[in-house]
Each structure stands twice: as C-alpha cells, then as structure tokens.
C-alpha cells in the first residue's frame, strides 16, 4: 500500500527579502521580550518564521545584530507613528491630548516592546548606546513637544518654561507603568489594569494629570 505523501511545511518566500526580514523582526521581538538577549534562541525564531538560521545570520550577521535591529525597529515604528499624528495642525492642548492618548494606546498595543525596553535598561543600555542613528529618530518627538509648549505659552494656555524632554518623559513614564508594572500592581492592590474599561479610565487620568501639569 502506497504511503500518503508527507506534507512539507511552507517556508517564507525568499523572493521578498523585505517581508522576510520584517517577519523575522516581529517574531524576534517576542522572543527577546520573553527571554532576553541571552535566553533567546535563534532556532526558535527560525522555526516560527519558517526560515533558517543561515538566512537570519545572512540578514542580521549575529543574534546581537538581530537584537539591535529589533531595538531600532521599535523606535522607528514609534516615532513614525508619532510623526503621523500631525500635531502641528492642532491647537496646543488638543495636540498634547492627542499625543498622550496615542502614547498610552501604543504602549498597550505593544506590550512586547515595553518588556524589550525594560530588558535593555536592565543591561544599562549596553546595546542601544551602540546605535547612534537613534538620536535623530528620537529627536523628532521632542521637537514636536517643544513646538506644542511654545505655541501653548504664546496662546496663554500653557505656562512658560516647560522643558519638552521632561514633559515627554512624564507622558512616557505614566504610559509605560501600566505595562511594566501591570501584573505586580494588579496582584498587590487587587486592581484591574487590563480590561478595556480600566484602560480607558487610566488614559483619562493620565491625560488629566499631564494637562494640569502644563497649565498656568
């Protein structure tokens, strides 16, 4: 009796290198977020992307090279999304509100990336400091916040002398906490931090805190 043919698992199309690399980066983000750089396994990434370790090393040179690309991709994705908010087209307080809402929603939607940033901070920025290309990428949002502050002060709806880096740090920190401390805080205080209702209430609270902090 003839044995049925064994179905081969389809592999990632190699004639679309950009798509292949993005698939690898997406899966690698989860792997590095879950296990850190030392615990992540390229074998797992290759299997989940239905590609090969050889191809991964061809594109990214090493596991560390892939990790650096994952970090770069996170910041590029975040900053490109912020740029598309078109904050300069809105009145200052509306622009600030939109940025706060976006930042909270982005972190909630990219929890793996938050854990990735936490892991890099645990290593004291060992790898991210080797990426000088990140400075111009990240300066975009600070310049946008600076313009909001300048327009707000000129319109009399925001106080003078607000440091844009400090303001953005506050927005990012409040948004980040809901992911970075979600499990411990929820257990310690028996507090829901994951439902849609809880997330909306938290976003409203963060927005109110930020707007009050910039008022005259």
Overview of the structural elements:
The relative contact order is 0.10. The chain has ten helices and no strands. The protein has two domains: 10-61, Homeodomain-like (Arc Repressor Mutant, subunit A, Orthogonal Bundle), CATH 1.10.10; 69-214, Tetracycline Repressor, domain 2, CATH 1.10.357.10. The protein is globular and about 60 Å long. The longest helix has 23 residues, at 17-39. Helix 1 (17-39) crosses helix 4 (63-83), helix 4 (63-83) runs parallel beside helix 7 (134-155) and helix 5 runs antiparallel to helix 10 (196-214). It starts with 16 loop residues before the first helix and ends with a helix. It has 216 residues and is mainly alpha-helical.
List the helices and strands and how they pair.
Elements: H1 17-39, H2 42-49, H3 53-60, H4 63-83, H5 92-109, H6 111-122, H7 134-155, H8 164-180, H9 182-189, H10 196-214
Helix pairs in contact: 1-2, 1-4, 1-6, 3-4, 4-7, 5-7, 5-8, 5-10, 7-8, 8-10
Based on DSSP secondary structure assignment, what is the total number of beta strands? Answer: 0
Instruction: Kindly identify the CATH topology of the largest domain.
Output: Tetracycline Repressor, domain 2
Uncertain stretches: 1-13
Q: What is the gyration radius calculated from CA atoms?
A: 21 Å
Q: Roughly what percent helix?
A: over 70%
CATH superfamily of the largest domain: Tetracycline Repressor, domain 2
H/E series, N to C?
HHHHHHHHHH
For the record, what CATH class of the largest domain applies? Mainly Alpha
CATH architecture field of the largest domain: Orthogonal Bundle
Mean pLDDT: 88
- Overall number of structural domains: 2
Please tell me what the overall shape is: globular
Structural class: mainly alpha
The biggest beta sheet, please? none
User: How many angstroms separate the termini?
Assistant: 85 Å
In percent, how much strand structure appears in the residues?
under 5%
Q: How many distinct helices? A: 10
């Amino acid at each position: 009796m003839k044995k049925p043919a064994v179905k081969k698992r389809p592999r990632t199309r190699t004639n679309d290198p950009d798509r292949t690399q993005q698939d690898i980066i997406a899966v690698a983000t989860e792997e590095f977020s879950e296990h850190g750089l030392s615990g992540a396994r390229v074998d797992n990434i290759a299997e989940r992307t239905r590609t090969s370790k050889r191809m991964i090393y061809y594109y990214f040179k090493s596991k560390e090279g892939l990790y650096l690309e994952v970090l770069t991709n996170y910041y590029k994705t975040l900053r490109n999304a912020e740029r598309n908010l078109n904050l300069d087209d809105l009145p200052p307080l509306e622009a600030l509100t939109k940025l706060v809402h976006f930042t909270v929603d982005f972190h909630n939607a990219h929890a793996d990336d938050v854990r990735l940033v936490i892991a890099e901070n645990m290593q004291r920025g060992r790898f991210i400091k080797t990426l000088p290309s990140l400075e111009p990428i990240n300066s975009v949002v600070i310049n946008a916040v600076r313009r909001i502050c300048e327009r707000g002060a000129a319109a009399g709806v925001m106080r003078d002398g607000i440091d844009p880096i400090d303001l953005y740090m506050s927005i990012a920190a409040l948004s980040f906490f809901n992911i970075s401390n979600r499990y411990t805080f929820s257990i310690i205080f028996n507090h829901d931090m994951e439902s849609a209702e809880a997330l909306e209430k938290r976003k409203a609270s963060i927005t109110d805190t930020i707007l009050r902090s910039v008022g005259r």
